[in-house]
Amino acid sequence: MPAVRRATKEDMPVIRDLLRGFRENHTPDFPHDFEYFSSLVEAVIDQPAALILLLDEDQGILVGMMLPTQFSLQPVAQELIWYTRKESDRRGIRLLKEYLNWAREKKSTHALCALKHEHPLMERMGFNQVQVGYYKRLEYDE
């Protein structure tokens, strides 16, 4: 069974590597400042409202936070990054299950997840699809 554990500051080299993998696989042409991105993750790693999980030490990462939404100031669990290396893709569900356990511990009323595409497993796990996100690169004449 895959091992999932909370990350610590000592894990930052592995976390940075996983964040690079996440970046390469998700919107690679979207504006991105890697140092800023990784410094945000490092800044919240020990915060009670944040969760950073590692799968099998270096095979996957999930970053979640208790945050308000645009609809309410009541914080709810929000998955911000969920990435597994290609060879460990099918084991990433362990990260999600641990995230849900954490959300329950935090007494969150809801747990939000964003995926790149629809996934039937999410509905089998009790999730409801609430939106589909898109982005468009805007071109300008110089």
Automatic annotation (TrEMBL):
<dbReference type="InterPro" id="IPR000182">
    <property type="entry name" value="GNAT_dom"/>
</dbReference>
<protein>
    <recommendedName>
        <fullName>N-acetyltransferase domain-containing protein</fullName>
    </recommendedName>
</protein>
<feature type="domain" description="N-acetyltransferase">
    <location>
        <begin position="2"/>
        <end position="142"/>
    </location>
</feature>
<dbReference type="InterPro" id="IPR016181">
    <property type="entry name" value="Acyl_CoA_acyltransferase"/>
</dbReference>
<dbReference type="GO" id="GO:0016747">
    <property type="term" value="F:acyltransferase activity, transferring groups other than amino-acyl groups"/>
</dbReference>
